[in-house]
Design a protein that fits this description.
The chain is 19% helix and 31% strand. The protein has helices at 2-24, 94-97, 141-145; strands spanning 66-69, 71-78, 85-92, 105-110, 115-116, 119-121, 124-126, 128-129, 136-138, 148-154, 163-170.
Length: 172
C-alpha cells in the first residue's frame, strides 16, 4: 500500500522530467497539454536562436560515415527502468513512411552475409515489425560489421524476394 501511495506522488514528477527531456529534444510543445503531467519548467538560459540548440554533437553520430537512402539518423532518448539514456538510431524518412505497405513485414537484412538485424522499440528488440513508424535500427554489431544493411518489406522467410525499402552503406 505504501508503494502505491509513493508511486502516485512520484509518478507525475517522473513524467514531468521525461516530458521535459522530450520537449528539449524537439517534441511538440502540445505534448505538455496532457492533464496528468505537469508542464515542464522553461530552462533559465534559452538559446538565442533555435538553430543554436543541438540535441547531440554531430561527431557522436555513428552513422555519419554511412550513405543513407530512405533512412535518417536520429538521436533519441529512452528511459528503461527509470534510467534515461540517449542513443542514435536509423529510422525511415518521411517519403518512405508515406508509401503504402500491405501483406508483409519490415526486417533488417545484410545481403552479403544473409544476416538479420533487429529493430528497437525503447529497450525491446524485434526481428520484424508491421508498422513503418516502428522501423528503428540501432547502432549495433549488425550495422558495424556489415558494409550494406537493407530494410526490406515482405516475407522474412524469403528475404531475397522481399522489396528493398531503404539502405545504409558503409564505403570502405
Amino acid at each position: 500500500m505504501a508503494f502505491r501511495i509513493a508511486l502516485r506522488t512520484a509518478a507525475p514528477a517522473l513524467a514531468a522530467v521525461a516530458l521535459s527531456l522530450a520537449v528539449a529534444q524537439g517534441a511538440p510543445a502540445s505534448a505538455t497539454e496532457h492533464g496528468a503531467i505537469p508542464a515542464p519548467t522553461a530552462p533559465s538560459a534559452a538559446p538565442a536562436h533555435p538553430s543554436a540548440r543541438q540535441t547531440a554533437p554531430a561527431d557522436d553520430n555513428p552513422f555519419r560515415a554511412m550513405e543513407l537512402d530512405g533512412l535518417k539518423a536520429e538521436f533519441r532518448f529512452m528511459c528503461p527502468a527509470g534510467r534515461c539514456v540517449g542513443y542514435w538510431s536509423l529510422a525511415l524518412t518521411e517519403d518512405r513512411l508515406k508509401r503504402h505497405y500491405q501483406g508483409g513485414e519490415f526486417f533488417a537484412y545484410a545481403p552479403a552475409k544473409g544476416e538479420f538485424g533487429f529493430f528497437l522499440d525503447t529497450d525491446i528488440a524485434y526481428r520484424t515489425v508491421k508498422d513503418p513508424r516502428r522501423v528503428r535500427l540501432g547502432d549495433s554489431d549488425f550495422t558495424r560489421r556489415n558494409p550494406r544493411v537493407e530494410i526490406r518489406y515482405g516475407d522474412p522467410d524469403r528475404p531475397r524476394a522481399a522489396e528493398v525499402v531503404a539502405t545504409a552503406t558503409t564505403w570502405m
